[in-house]
Design goal:
Helix content is 39%, strand content 29%. The chain has helices at residues 33-39, 43-46, 61-72, 120-140, 142-156, 160-166, and strands at 3-6, 9-12, 18-22, 28-31, 77-84, 90-102, 107-116.
């Protein structure tokens, strides 16, 4: 079995990858077997649905705003994401998101995401940061959450990508 459950938390083998593709609106167009299995949904329940069907309420909206801005600008991005399953369990991933480009027209036609099991080191840093960001968001909106992230990164003198990759 590739998925382990401890309470409400699910984990998966570090050698396996969750893969999905979406259209430009974030609707799922492809989900690999591990994605289907860990999500608790059947493939027919996922295809055509918005990827945020998996959004966990503990995730700051600011992270998804940053992710969408970067992906729509044709840039890749790494991020830690906490997802919620159909049965209200959760699992963390270290995601790598890239745009899919039509080589003939050089236009973005969708997005591709490969996710792996995150390191405990990474989660020990990300969870408290996301908690602070979520609280800022709840009190003062998404921009306050983004400002908190930017101030944290500025204080550490690193980019978002360098911050994420340094904790893997």
């Amino acid at each position: 079995m590739s998925i382990l459950q401890r309470g409400d938390a699910l984990t998966f083998d570090e050698n396996l990858f969750i893969v999905s593709k979406t259209d430009l609106k974030g609707r799922i167009t492809y989900a690999n077997d591990l994605f289907i299995e860990i999500s608790g949904y059947q493939e027919k329940e996922l295809i055509g649905k918005p990827h945020n069907i998996l959004r966990h309420p503990d995730m700051p909206k600011a992270i998804f705003k940053l992710l969408w801005e970067r992906a729509q600008a044709g840039k890749e991005m790494f991020a830690y994401v906490k997802n919620r399953t159909k049965h209200n369990h959760y699992y963390w991933v270290h995601a790598y998101i890239t745009p899919i480009t039509d080589t003939k027209t050089n236009t973005i036609i969708g997005y591709h995401s490969v996710r792996r099991s995150p390191s405990q080191k990474g989660l020990s840093v990300i969870e408290p940061l996301y908690d602070k960001m979520l609280k800022a968001e709840q009190h003062n909106g998404v921009q306050a959450s983004l400002s908190l992230l930017e101030n944290t990164l500025s204080h550490l003198k690193v980019s978002y990508d360098a911050f994420i990759l340094s904790h893997e």
